[in-house]
Design brief:
This protein has two domains: 92 residues, Translation factors (Elongation Factor Tu (Ef-tu), domain 3); 129 residues, Rossmann fold. The protein starts with 5 loop residues before the first strand and ends with a strand. Strand 11, helix 5 and strand 12 form a beta-alpha-beta unit. It has five helices and twelve strands. A six-stranded antiparallel β-sheet has the order 4-3-6-1-2-5, with helices on one face.
Length: 239
C-alpha cells in the first residue's frame, strides 16, 4: 500500500545551534501515523518537489500529533531549511520508514549508541521512549563533536540522565583549544573508549549514526575485533 504523502505545518522552527534547526511538524486533522522510534521521514518544499531529503526523527513514537526532525545546514535541502524555514511554512512529508530501531525487546539490553554531529538526533528519540516507558534498557550515547558549542540537545540529554539512571550521555571533543576549561574527554572516539563501556557484550546492541568513516570504524570494532554477530550492529550513515 502506498504511503500517504501529506502537507504539514511547521508549527515551530527552533535553532539548536547556529547551523542546526529543529522543525516541529504538526499532523493535519485526521492524520494518524503508525511508526516506530528510530525511523526517518522524507520532506520537500511544495515549490521545489525534486529536492527531497530524508531526516531521522528526533522525536519518538510516543510523541503523537507531530514529527520532530533536527536538520544541519548541509546540501540544498538542509541549507534551505536552516536558513529559511520558519514557523507557518509548510512541507510535504512522506511518512516514516526505516530499520534503525531501538532494541527494547527483550528487556535488559544495553544499547551503545555512537554518534557524530547531527548523528545524535535519532538517539534523542531512543532515550525519550525508554525513559517515558521506564524500560529496563541501558542506553549509553558516545558522542563526538568539534567543541562544546557543537553539542546538540545537551540540556535535554543531561536532564534525561537525571530522570533515568540507565542513561549515560558521554561527549568527546576533537578541536578544543588547550586552554579551554572543558574537563571532559578530548579526542576522537576510539575502540578502547567504546570497549570501556561494554559489560556483557553478548547482551549489547551497537548503533552508529554519522559519517561513513565513523560507521565503518564502529562496524570494524563490533564485527572484526569483538567478533559479534551482525544482528548486534545497526547503522545509519551519510557522505
Amino acid at each position: 500500500m502506498a504511503k500517504q504523502i501529506v502537507e504539514m505545518l511547521v508549527e515551530t522552527a527552533t535553532m539548536e545551534l547556529p547551523d542546526v534547526k529543529t522543525l516541529h511538524l504538526k499532523w493535519p486533522e485526521g492524520y494518524d501515523a503508525d511508526f516506530k522510534t528510530g525511523q526517518f521521514i522524507t520532506v520537500y518544499w511544495p515549490h521545489k518537489q525534486k529536492y527531497k531529503r530524508a531526516y531521522s526523527l528526533s522525536s519518538c513514537a510516543l510523541d503523537r500529533g507531530f514529527f520532530d526532525v533536527t536538520v544541519k545546514r548541509d546540501g540544498k535541502m538542509g541549507t534551505s531549511i536552516v536558513d529559511w524555514c520558519d514557523a507557518g511554512d509548510k512541507l510535504f512529508v512522506i511518512p516514516p520508514v526505516g530499520k534503525f530501531l531501538p532494541a527494547f525487546d527483550p528487556p535488559g539490553k544495553h544499547l551503545i549508541c555512537i554518534a557524530g554531529g547531527s548523528g545524535v538526533t535519532p538517539f534523542r528519540g531512543f532515550v525519550r521512549e525508554a525513559t517515558r516507558r521506564n524500560l529496563d534498557t541501558r542506553i549509553t550515547i558516545l558522542y563526538t563533536v568539534r567543541t562544546t558549542k557543537d553539542v546538540i540537545f545537551n540540556e535535554e540529554f543531561r536532564q534525561l540522565e537525571k530522570e533515568n539512571p540507565r542513561v549515560k550521555f558521554e561527549v568527546t571533543c576533537t578541536r578544543l583549544a588547550p586552554e579551554d576549561p572543558w574537563t571532559g574527554r578530548r579526542g576522537r572516539i576510539t575502540a578502547e573508549w567504546v570497549k570501556s563501556f561494554i559489560g556483557d557484550a553478548a547482551n549489547t546492541v551497537f548503533y552508529a549514526c554519522g559519517t561513513n568513516e565513523l560507521v565503518a570504524a564502529t562496524e570494524h570494532l563490533v564485527l572484526e575485533e569483538l567478533k559479534l554477530a551482525k544482528e548486534q550492529m545497526r547503522t545509519e550513515k551519510w557522505g
